[in-house]
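S.,

Sequence below, as promised.
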Amino acid sequence: MTHDEVKTFNSRVSKLLSEGKLREALADMRVHSERIMAWELTSRIDAIEQHYKYMLKYLADGVTDPERDNQYANIVSAAYSLLDSVTREMKVPETATLYFNMVRTRRATAGRGITALAQSYLDTADRYAAEAESVARELFSAIWTTFPLSNSDIESITALTCSEEVPASVRRMMVSAVWLGAIEYFDEPRMILLAQMYIDETLPAEMRLTALAGMMFALLRHSGHIVPPKLRHAIDAMKESATWHSDMIALCLEMTRTLATAEISRKLRDDVFPELMQLGKEIEKKISNNELPQINSPEDLVENPEWEDIMRNKGLQDKLIELSELQSDGGDVYMASFAHLKHFPFFNHISGWFMPFDPRQSQVASIGSNNSGMIELLTSMPFLCDSDKYSVVFSLSSMPQSQAMGNAFQKTPEMEEMLRSMQDEKGAEDRSRAFFNGYIKNVYRFYNVYSRRGEFYNPLAHSAKITTLAIVGDIFSEADTLEVVAEFLFRQKLYGDAMAVLTRLDAVAAPTAERFQKLGFCAERSGDYVSASEYYDQAYLLDGNSRWTIRRLAVSMGKLRHYERAAGLWQKLVEQEPDDIGLLLRRASSLTHCGKYAEALPVYFKIEYLDDGNVKAKRGRAWAQLMLKQFDEAETTFATLALSAEARPIDFVNAGHAALARNDYAAAIMHYRDALNIGGLTPAGLSEAFDHDAESLKRLGVDTAQVPMLVDAISYINMNE
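The prediction came back faster than expected:
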């Protein structure tokens, strides 16, 4: 079947199930399962329908059944699972994604199942040998692409992941395979397995947290899916864990942090790296010209103030400080650097992206025999994720004289002290934040760098929605939690997501001026000045002394063209800083826009007194004079502006307006022609200027009906010349 036919079938049956038309949905699925000769699926459809018929019979007979709702929910959930199975079988023959390629290959070669592969791996004597790692990769693929997982599959995965004889890196890798499969198709047994892993306190914390992350990824992927009672109970059990609250907050923060990673990478790629390269060339040139001293040691770079001056003048220092702050807050500043180092064969297999860094991994071990210092240092670095550590090892090993390169990475006492301070004993929340910071970076790289990334649903692209998941929503209904998440999103400049959380917070917490300030700012950044003004008004009512609130409210009022209100707000600020030119200009402009020219004029005069060369004040003052019919003064000022180095086309046009208001058509035409010939205004632009100023011209007594003739006259004169 074609892709469109499969999609149409899935949409049609999903709609039937959502509408409660279970009988029709089952009949439709049976037709298609028989068409593709998926007899095992047909048998499952028959079994579900029989169960449904029994339940309906008891209902028709008036039998009271307190479990009826749960039974119905289980039947509907099973029907959704069957829909996934039928749809999946319809896709298997021709879909060219990696997932279905793997499914077809395993079927064509009668590939070993999960149980056989798990046992084969457990039977391997040396689990760090290349052959054992090959089996592990095959097992990863089998866990990922098997749907649904059978009871024996679950038992085999559990036995392997619980075995302390299996390397921790392999155990965690298999947990990732479990949730990757759950991303592809809603598989209740998988998700219950993830829940059980999280609550099993005998497992290493890293495994438990991997399971928690995977569960949330799967819930995000299937947020519209009905959660069956068994899975709901399993999730409820997760909530009983002592670390559930702190783990979920840590996961939420690290997931939402990825939403800023693309912007961080852009800054590095487009701003910092090019400027650093240019800076290097400039410094090299200055050194060769003896304008700067030679660099004899690393300390020279730190101690020489001239380097700092160069960086400051180029604005590079501020950008590096900003990136440093982002890094200290956990921002992924390495993505741009390491994205280009994923071309090694290790990353060709999907499991490589989810393999925790392990010095005993066969490829790393072979390199590490001559580079022990480098491997030891990489293992200790908490700020590099596993994927990037593998990239470093493979990159250096491919260089000439790799042994010498590796020896350059020996730990110094200072570096050891730094690493120790990074890995000091921390609280549970800090430990989970540290783990998620690295693990989510691995996941982010897979979904954004892997060559076939377009074939996968990316849960991190929907990170902010984690706070809206109904099944775990209770944790994000507490004011304290929402406040932490909202503050984090706001600090990361994720204003749309922050606004959604702040709105929820506003529904459960007492109002505060600060919250309304942030809501207003989020709305303003999204261009919604109506909402912004409403939120700023609320903040103003709660704290009328906040200069920041008054300023933002005044800006919003101006954007909404409520100029009189804006002028009043700017006046409040001027009263506190009467000589602030910026505030005075804002007030004068607002007064001008609302037609209060007589009030605006003295403000413009004051600005010119404080700053005689202020062009904006001269232009505004001249316009106010024009509107007050002080034609000579206005025309003189506009003409002066037109001759200045800061002339704009509008200055010529305004001078023309002043002449036109005095019925001096010759002077007006001269000024309008100057706007075209000197100012660079187009004829269309001149017509737009007349349209824009039509009401002002009428106020001055100009017959605007003559404007089109005036424009034509100017055009003819220019043509004749």
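The CA atoms of residues 178 and 190 lie 6 Å apart.

Coffee later?
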